[in-house]
Amino acid sequence: MPLPTLVTDLISYELLLSVAELGSIGRAGEAHGMSQPAASSRLAALERRVGVPLLERTPRGATLTATGELVASWAERVVVEAARLATSIESLRTDRNTHVRVAASLTIAEYLVPRWLITLRAQEPSVTPSLSSGNSADVSAAVLAGRADIGFVESPDVPNGLEHCDIAHDELVVVVAPGHEWVGRSITARELASTPLVTREPGSGTRRALERALESTDSAPPLLEVSSTTAIKAAVGGGMAPAVLSSLAVSAELTAGTLVRVRTDGLNLRRSLRAVWPTGTRPNEPSSTLVTIAIAATES
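Below the sequence we write its predicted C-alpha cells.
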C-alpha cells in the first residue's frame, strides 16, 4: 500500500525537529541549507497537512506547541530510521563501487587482463578486483548467475540474457612443430578441416571461433581435446598434430622458433573479444572503467 502524503515529506519533519532544537525557523532552515522564508513555507504546509498548529511563532523565535511536541516525538523515530536506511544503502553502493569481480576466458585472462587491472589499480586505487578464469561458456555462466560483475569472452556466440560490446580483436593462427610438412607452405580451409587437430575443449571460445570459420567444410574429429593452452602448445611442439590458437598465446613460441605459423588461404580467422554483462543492467563503475581501459589498450 502506498504511503500517505502526510508522512512522505521527511524533510519537513526534520525541520520541525530542528526548530525544537534551535528555537528558530531561520536557524533550522540554515541547518538544512534553505532560506528562512522557504523553511517557514515548508513548515506551514506541514501544519496544513497535519491539520493542527505545530509551532508558536514569536518575534524572539519559534517553539513547538504541545501537539507539535507530540508529533515531533513520533517523527524523530522515523527520521532516525530513514537516516539509518540511507546510510545502509550508501554502504551497499560503496561496496559495489569498490569491488569488481572479473571473469575472463583463459586467453584473455592470461595475456590481457593483468595489464588492464594494473591500469585500473593506478586509476582507482580504492578498487579491489578479483579474477576468475575458464572457457567462454564458463565465463558467460558466471555472469548470468551473478558470480561475476563483468565477463570477457572470445566466443563468437553470446548467450541470451547477456549484453555485450567488442573490446578488441584477435587472430587465430595455425601452428605446427618446426619439422612439420606444412612448414613453408600455405594450406586451404579444406586441408585444415580434414586434419585431426589438437584442440581446446567444447565451450572454449577458441574452438567455437574455429568451428564457425570452418562451418561450411566437413571437419575431422579432434585428435586430442585439452583444456590447457600450455598443454596444447606442448603437444604441438612435440609433433603430435597441428593446432589453431590465439596469436596472443603463441607469440613467444613463434619468436623462439619452437612453433611455426602456417599461412592459410581463403580462411578468415580474425575474431572479436567481448565484454559481457546481464541484459537489462548497467555494469557497476569499476566494471565500466575496466571496459574503457580494455578498449583504450587495444586502440593505443
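The CA atoms of residues 213 and 268 lie 7 Å apart.
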